User: Fold these one by one.
Assistant:
Number 1:
Amino acid sequence: MTGLPGSGKSAIARRLRAKLHSRGVHSQILSTDDLRRVMTPNPTYNEEERERVYATIVYIADILNQNGVNVIIDGTGNRRKYREFAWKTLKKFALIYVRCPLEVCVQRERRRVRRSSAPTEIYQKAFDGRSTTVPGINVPYEEPLDAEVVVDSGSMGASECAEEILHQLWNRFF
């Protein structure tokens, strides 16, 4: 699952996992924010660090897949090369693009309550010049060209997005 910070990926991932669970499908969410908290407690978000984080999360997803666990990767994945690596590595893979206008992401991020390890105030830090690594502001967010599922979280709620994702992927994977 890819999208700008604040697009709703984590909320959608949690709802998708609950919907899968209600259908008897075991799944695990792998969050780049959670992984980064362990791998890089003082993250820089530079290209090298991002490559390590995304390679590691794909490696973990592959191990879980080999053991019969369905995985939902929740990460910005701002570069196409990170998503292509996952597509080449994982046998069962679908790219889900959580599309959301930048203005909506900025507003959501301003209201974000710290519930997870997701960083807060990232857009404000970018606007103030305190950060130079925010996807969509001062580093590219390369929109997917080949997503299997696209949901518009700017106009749909998280549960509605999760339902659409489940609907589009159910026959393919389950």
Note: The first strand starts at residue 27 and ends at 31.
Number 2:
Amino acid sequence: MNLTEFGWDATWDQAFEPYKPQGLVPARIAREEKELYLVYSEQGELSAEVTGKFRHEARSRSDFPAVGDWVAVQPLPGEERAMIHALLPRKTRFSRKVAWVKTEEQVVAANVDTVFLMSGLDRDFNLRRLERYLVLTWDSGARPVILLNKSDLCPDLAAKVAETESVAFGAPVHPVSARENQGLEALLPYLGPGSTVALLGSSGVGKSTLINRLLGEERQATGELREDGRGRHITSSRELLFLPTGGLVIDNPGMRELQMWGDEEVLKGGFEDIEALSAQCRFRDCRHEKELGCAVQEALSEGRLDSGRYRNYLKMQRELRFLARRQDQRLRQEEKVKWKKITQWQKAREKARQNWKP
């Protein structure tokens, strides 16, 4: 395999320099299944797992490889297996909080150039959810591109595109129909040789159908919507796929839940309009409630700022503040455990010193 086909370039080669004297070789994570990996390397496809040292030094889930990551591996002689020794610094990372109550980062896709945010022009269409995807994509460092799928089913396509553009703030919006193979030519500029795209969206928006169209073959399983209009989980794992255009796409399972990750700074990329209004308020610490000279409340009363959009902004802000408190609690607990271990070690050493006989 030629690694340049998978996005390897001079920048990655420079990042890999410290591992060359160790006899390690670069590889890219193509699929993950419960901390077992499929990697692409110059030796071909290899199954891989992290070393014991890697596992011991990893402090959280986000320290482990994710699909799209570049890693330093040691192929095992005579086997189609390898051991992962190190993770190269990520160029971009799309993250969310893991599902349920655990406060931990999950890296959904790494080292992607573009994120296709896919929404269906049926019962799936939801501007508030799209705003959430946009916030996390801007924060990831990748370029967001919005795909409005099932355009053939939409009676007022122009209106839906206009609604979407009102929250996109610079992100391109492309109406497409994966099933009817319409509008897909607009996606080709993002899928050139060595470019990596991550495809994200809810279950049932047509991601697998789009992947099959881009691949030119029926590789990914597809399914119909349920009776309640919600999508079915067809794709069960993340996978890096090579396209005939020379680009790569990371297919992801549908996400019913997209919890925020990061701090309040992440909101600036997706809510530039509200941030700009906040800067115009008379008081720097304005809470945008009943204060005099509040530019946000003025924009709401005049209809220049959509109330639903503003409520969504406040909702994400509350989530991020709650996340920050949970992270502080976790750090305090980790610090407490660390010092307890240090104290126990010191006591054991002192006891051993007292009992030592020359």
Note: The radius of gyration is 24 Å.
Number 3:
Amino acid sequence: MDAFVWDQNFITGVEDVDVQHHALVDLFNELSSTFQSTDLDDREALLNDTFARLVAYTEYHFADEEALMRGVGIDPRHIVSHEAEHAHFVEQIRTIWSARHSMPDTAESIIGFLTSWLGLHILGTDQALARQIVAIGAGTTPEQAWRNEKDFPESKTTQALLKLIARLYHVLAQQNAGLIDVNRQLEMRVTGRTQELAHANEELLNANLRLEAFSRTDGLLGIANRGYFDERLAQACAAAFRREQPLALLMIDVDHFKQFNDCHGHPKGDACLQAVARAVEDTLTRSTDLVARYGGEELAVILPDTDAEGATTVAARVVANVAALGLVHGASQVSPCVSVSVGVAAQVPPHKDGSSRLVEEADAALYEAKAGGRNRWVLAPR
């Protein structure tokens, strides 16, 4: 069943205009039929195609009608009003179409809006235009033809019908505008809530990252703590075993640190450890290397993919960098300045859980470095 039934009442007498109106009616009815289609797979594509053709033809019709008004010389006041109706309709129907998925009774709302608008427009504005064209053709001035429209003797039936259609059109327009506004406000609230949730998730993620970093960091020295060292060494050992690559470990002890604390006080002892940790960090050049506080005044350095030669080179730099700090040690039996001893172990792990063996070897080499006079490094024998 057609949504808009064309009959003689809609004929204006301007041939081109009537032909175009009839074509618009056909497109309205085609859109209505497509809404009622049971082929759900193709319906959305067909709806979009039909609507695109309808809008394109509407804009063509409006442009042709506006050119006709100017060509005939219709009074400018009618032209301005007529063109405003055209522009408003195109804006409204595009807006309604874009919001159709959020509207209840979509087909009824859109088709009802289209048909009520076209009926009102033809019976009112376009019929008035046709009468002015006829009057101007008979010699009436455009201004007088426009004024005559105000006194045009429409029947009471026609007047009632136009008022009814106008009321229906405005109700539909307000209803659709209200639905679209509600939808936009809902979308804005959803967008705002989504952004709030994203921000909250980001804050939570950052808090978790900060907490994780805090749980892995020594509070005094700002380097990895013992727990994170154990975790990283186990991972590095398993990876080295898998790839059959060497893994090196340095165990570093600040020489006579107890005596430093007794001589200079614990606050300066803390500052001393912080300076030594920075000097050791500055020795490392790769992001994969890790320096950690092993316990007390003892530090450890993990050096992945590093053989004995590379590890002893790093150890020598560590000893030199700490000595270069020039931190006065008033109770040292080794040097007038703070120094360190370093034990070095490097090997291709014989199995993936070989981290404890590597620690034992590096610790034994550290013991030898301290027994040998301190302020030096010693490589564990292989």
Note: The chain is about 65% helix and 10% strand.
Number 4:
Amino acid sequence: MNVEIRQVKTAAEQGFADAFAGLKDRLAKPSAVAALREAAFARFEARGLPHRRVEEWKYTDLRALMREAVPLAPPPDARDRARAKDAGRFLAEAGARRIVLVNGVFMPELSDLAGLEQGLTVGSFAERLARGEGAALSLPGAAGALDEDMAVSLNTAFMGDGAVIAVAPGARIERPLHVVSVVTAASPCAVFARSLVEIGDGAQITLIETHEGTADVAYQINSVVQVAAGDKARFDHIKIVREGSRGLHVGTLMAAAGAEVAFNTFAFTIGGAVVRNQLALALNGRNTEACIGGASLLRGNQHADNTLVVDHAVPHCTSREVFKSVVDDDARSVFQGKIVVRQHAQKTDGKMAAHALLLSESAEADAKPELEIFADDVVCGHGATAGALDEELLFYLKARGIPQKQAEALMIEAFVGEAADGVANEVVREALMLMASGWLAARG
């Protein structure tokens, strides 16, 4: 006897199914993009929201954390634009060119698009979709492997707007670009944003990505950024998550790098109820160097997950991954990192480390570093630590007249600062440390 087993949908999964059915006519054109959406939602519907039995999501059970599918965010109105006007201004001293997304919608009128540097173009992702350019969404290797990820599939099904940034071969854009993503809704809503960054051979760009939203509103963000870096390009990327206290943020960076690329990315998480930063990077050309880092400052019941896969597909590439988290109260930090070395990727040099500082008895840190090595002439390693503040060092500082709280703050700042040293832009690095100092001051 054959018994058909059907997966029971959660309220959130059923909500997504109803929403997709309701939008089907609106999303039906152009047909090439509609086919991508249909295939992506079919993948999602077959597997549902990721849960703890899915290895890549075992520490972040999205099925349990996402109880309901909230309505899609409506197009921004005048009130939304007014609320978004000052978003991201904490980085004003960086002198970056602002590119503003309000509820996932690219807003040229709020962006700084005058006098674009030669070789730089900035546009709307929705316009690219309207032209039927769905082929631009595919990336090779591990970068494209996340297409099968359930959160990315959901994004592909519902993707609306975002930014498209293109840098011509040889162009060196000295002024940083700041993509400001802000949710202004006064009631729960869902945002599905997709942005593309295309960097030509020998080009250079610094991209700052910030996320913030309305406090005490249970909104949901599913954001995907795709990066294609040509040979001898340089890409510096800083992501800062300052979501509202009830915000749920799933952000994905999918990147493919050619030969002799300098690829640097840093994720800083200080806000949001649930945050997952995931990265898939394919090193497809020789002599490419990747530096991947992050720092999370968590308190209350916050949950932050940094998950990454670095695929060494060719020989003579280097990767370094260093993540640090400071966890207080009942918060939880997660690190999952995997370095994959393909059979012919000899002379690979890959090292990965995750360190957690636990400030309370109930704080939790999970770490799962992994190596998958199919070559024999490599230098690879990983490590993870978790523990409380060093009592001997704390005593040393107190013995020199430094009060307990100040001594703790000095130690925590030094711990976070070591990770932030990987941020090349001095103004942004100082802004990160200023946010860390404010977080520490709020501890009381």
Note: The mean pLDDT is 93.
